[in-house]
Amino acid sequence: MMLVKTWTKRFCMTVLFLAALGTTFQCISGVKAETMKNWWLDYSNSYQEHQQQYEKHATKTISLVFKQLNKASTLSTQISSQPVIAETPKLEDAINWNQYEKHTVVATGYTAGYESTGKSPEHPGYGITYSGVKVKRDLYSTIAADLSVYPIGTILFIPGYGYGVVADKGSAIQGNDLDLYYETVEDVFNEWGKKELDVFLVQMGNGTLTEDELHKLNNNETMQVFRQQYLSTKEE
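Structure tokens predicted for 3D domain-containing protein:
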């Protein structure tokens, strides 16, 4: 019982002390209790308003971040995972041909057939060149020339045709005339015909050419990308 009275007494004294303190503050500052109450209410309302605006702004910011992340994710899925394969340039564009001596020639397409050589497929010399190698249309093709100008084995680069290796001759071929080998008459008319153009002297021949030498030229590893381009075109 005594303990309850003691705590009641202490509580009343605390309340009186706070009341006296409030009265003293009002007397000194001139601020009334009602004014303090209004300040406190204004502060509470202002704090709540700022808190709501902050939460609203934070929500918008988070939403914007998620939108940007989603957009970035969408863009990333549109990027192809397939490797980019560079297109192999044409042989004419892959090498600086100006480093070689340039010659102006008149080049005519020809075949191994009767219309060009007077030989039929039954002839023992059909398709065999003066050098002894068989006619060939490849990356390095057999061509005919005036052997006093371009000896057997001479390598020329002929724009639009490729490499030509002198393997044959002809009685009608004089000076800077060339005959370029094609497999069919249709190929001659469709792909070449007769042209005057500049060719490039890659290597002067020594008067001989073998099947093995021609095979090595056409199977040079560094040139296979260009050979495949030609063979693909040929198959089409």
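Residues 33-77 form the longest helix (45 residues).
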